[in-house]
Amino acid sequence: MKPLLEATGIVKEFRGRGRSLDVLALDGVDFSIMPGEVVGIVGESGSGKSTLSRILVGIEQATKGVVRHNGEEVNTPADWRKLRFDAQYIFQDPYLSLAPHMSVGQSIGDGLEIRGEGTPADRAKRIATTLEMVGLKASDAQSYPAVFSGGQRQRISLARALVLNPKVIICDEIVSGLDVSVQAQILNLLVELHREHGVGLVFVSHDLRVVKYLCQRILVMHRGLVVESNSTEKLFSNPQHEYTQHLLSCVPAGLSPSGV
Amino acid sequence: MITARMDSQAEALLSIRGLTIALDDRPGTSPVVQNLTFDVREGECVGIVGESGSGKSLSSLALLNMLPKGVHISSGSIIAAGKDLTKANERELRDVRGSLVSMVFQDPGAALNPSRTVGKLLADVLHAHSDLSRESIRERSIAVLNDVGFPDPESRLKSFPFQLSGGLRQRVAIAMALINRPRILVADEPTTSLDVSVQKGILQLIRRRTTEDRIGCVFVSHDLGVIAEVADRVVIMYSGQVVEEGPVANVLTNPRHPYTRGLIASAPNMTSTLANPLRPIPGSLPSVGRTPNGCAFQDRCPDKSKGQCAPQDPSWTTDSKNPSHRWLCHDSSNSRAKASL
Lengths: 260, 341
Fold this sequence. Notes:
Distance between the termini of chain A: 40 Å
Radius of gyration of chain B: 21 Å
Helix content of chain B: 25-40%
CATH topology of chain A: Rossmann fold
CATH superfamily of chain A: P-loop containing nucleotide triphosphate hydrolases
Strand order of the largest sheet of chain B: 6-7-8-3-9-10-12-11
CATH class of chain A: Alpha Beta
Radius of gyration of chain A: 19 Å
CATH class of chain B: Alpha Beta
Distance between the termini of chain B: 31 Å
Mean pLDDT of chain B: 88
Oligomer: heterodimer
Number of helices of chain A: 9
Number of helices of chain B: 13
Order of helices and strands of chain B: HEEEHEEHEHHHHHEHEHEEHHEEH
Shape of chain B: globular
Number of domains of chain A: 1
Low-confidence stretches of chain A: none
Shape of chain A: globular
Structural class of chain A: alpha/beta
Strand order of the largest sheet of chain A: 6-7-8-3-9-10
Largest interface: A-B, 37 and 45 residues
Largest sheet of chain A: 6 strands, mixed
Structural class of chain B: alpha/beta
Number of domains of chain B: 1
Number of strands of chain B: 12
CATH superfamily of chain B: P-loop containing nucleotide triphosphate hydrolases
Order of helices and strands of chain A: EEEHEEHEHHHEHEHEEHH
CATH topology of chain B: Rossmann fold
Helix content of chain A: 25-40%
CATH architecture of chain A: 3-Layer(aba) Sandwich
Number of strands of chain A: 10
């Protein structure tokens, strides 16, 4: 089986303007995800985890390196459009990523409209079922983002990605701004979508506890490099790289209630 | 070990009694913080845990009488070293802030004046409370930067905040808070914007300064893992009320209030797996001023059938084995063993 998405030898340099220096955000990174897989990318700020995830869907262009979709190189704008039929992206801040002047239904239906899928009535039906899939009401399509809480907005973002039937959803820190009880609702929703609909996930996060809970395989990034990549179980039970060991030692262990 | 630090004989540095914070323009609606009562003793760190809207940040701001416009302290007292801060005027408060009681905020980038160097920021705080020579200001600044683990302080006194990393900026903010040797340190989510490896250093620093300088620390956080590392006692807030409090080890390993249990069950830790899924708390926080009659948590409570949740307000139950552990629930028999059935 071919990887759904594959990136090889990715280098990304941000040119400094004026007196600021150039930044080498990614220094030769390889990444791949099979259909239906849940892969985590963890690292601290500045490690390049977000940049890598953005390059995977073409929000950012790599300075060097190749992105492949189903084994074929992605080069032209038409190739990227085809890739985005399979890969959708969700941003961290649900207050910035939803257009405030569009109703929830319009936001969710935008992608369908751009692709010219179905009649308006078909689209409305798909918007309604998708809203129910993420735990909202079909009638919420008429409301505007302003009336929803952060957790509900993140559900709307998720609906916007899901309505296009993607094979993989790339989630960049999507639960970081949420309260723990709401974060748990969204994480469980992602688990359910993966189990029932076979959606793959690239889950970018700084929180090792969350990534450990959700992902099958994890890449650890540090200063623009993938320093370690392994199955979740092996990575946590037997971390090889010094940096991974350091990172694991810094996670607040907490006290777990006896018997829970 | 944590309980060993709990020295109940030690005198309270900070006593908060019945602190209630209300909205200015909506008298009659339920207050945003209700009847907050707790003590902080010498060398002790008290954690305040809650989600957004629980009133934890407003409570911490109230400790320095720094509430934003639109809300005010409507009753209760805050006694710090014998003074009631709720009755202090602006001049008296200026003497207290940064000297008796200091504060560290969440975002060190926003908390530090970007046009002042590290040396000047520290000198400003000293000037506000004492009349020291330039030489002794420099000495004190270098000493406090050493105390907070700031590398190479002599040469960095001339650095501006933008030249420092987030972790170093937070160390400068903590140095500013500690330079006048306050008795009480209030830290509102001081590590939330920092990376985990930086967070660890800051938590160790706050813990060490609390123990070694015998200060009282109030540490506000949404992260139970962080609270477990830094605090001796914890106060759990929900919808403006304390619902449970006690020694960290007791509250986190044997939570009694259904909200505390929900919070713990929904937070992933290093042992969570999909085989033992997270259990989110259903529903959402009641909106400001619309708390239901009786227990504030009744609409989201999984154990609602077990108690008389409304219309009477719940009363406190104390753990018979550990009198400092108490919780606010109608179901006075509420115990973990029962809840896990």
